[in-house]
Specification:
Elements lengths: L1 E3 L20 E2 L3 E8 L4 E4 L15 H5 L17 E6 L2 E8 L11 E4 L18 E4 L6 E8 L5 E5 L2 E6 L8 H4 L18 E5 L5 E7 L13 E4 L17 E6 L4 E5 L23 E6 L5 E8 L5 E9 L2 E8 L6 E7 L4 E10 L3
Antiparallel strand pairs: 1-9, 2-22, 3-9, 3-22, 4-8, 5-6, 5-8, 6-7, 10-16, 11-15, 12-13, 12-15, 13-14, 17-18, 18-21, 19-20, 19-22
Length: 359
Amino acid sequence: MRKKLYALLGLIGLAVSSISYSQQSVSTPVGFHTQVIKGNSFSLLAINVANTPDGNLTRTISQTFGPNNESGLVAGLWDEADNIWIPYDGGYLRVYYNDEESTFPPVTVGWRAVHHGNADMSQFSLPNNGGIFFESKAEEDWYITFGGYVNRSAIETQIAPGINVINKGYPADIPLNQSGIGSSFGFTPGKGIWDGDIVWCFREDGTYDRYYYIQDQPAFNPFGITPGWKKIGADFADGDAGLDLLSSAFIIECKGDGGIIRLYPPPLLQRQPFTTAPLAPPRPLVYPTFTTDVNGGQYFLMYWFAHNANINYHTEIHSPGNWWHLSTQTNLPNQPLNNFAPISLGKGIARVIAEYKDL
């Protein structure tokens, strides 16, 4: 779903509280996140939510931007359309949407790729746990929003020497020092910017912040350098940069041998051992989607169906350090229930907890 930059409304207040429940069943979390596409520029892009509850982050071009370009990318032949640069086979595949028949070159309407003629690219998959470069031909900045199921397990990505585009994996704030990058076997710490791997985080203004990781304090240390994450360009006196946040997609400039990067979700999102409580109601099956109101306002919508009228369904929203109660609903068997959030919030994660009413 696409949203113009100037149309975003900003944050709204939500009345929330923290409550406890009796025996309960908990849905798979769902969520959304919004990323900026810079006009006439390159942006870094990744989808931090899954199409299915299993948490697989792979999507096709059609699933990502719509089979008929419903996301509204600038269309045309490759030199005038937005180009999606997908890491592929040691290089990049450049995909675009052509919106008119062309005799020369002979290209029909649909998703096509540079140097691939009229081949249909709609079912080409984006890299699993990876990201893409988005070359925008639009004159202005705009936002694109993705919604789906939230992964609760650690994700692993193989990196190799050179530039690697990585998916953060979760639509939540993840500081560098909680990401798992620094402790991953495939990541090479260093004594400075000249020998260790570099993490490039894409920012809202279209620039990158670059970071390196010092694992051990240097023996000769006249500047008082401490172990931890450091930001390139910052004064050593600024100390650790571990609280700086990963971007939805980020780059690892691998200067070592590479290997596996293991990324972790925030603690409250991590999958817990599942034990069936004999007195708990059936687990809610929550479905994520988007909707638009009569005034054009755009919302992330989650809905599910009541099992029976003796069950309370509590919606909770995730924030760093806690799950907060938003509302409690009930309904007759097989009748729908829902909750929603304006996409102007930028991102959000929610879940539904079911428990039997006290009779």
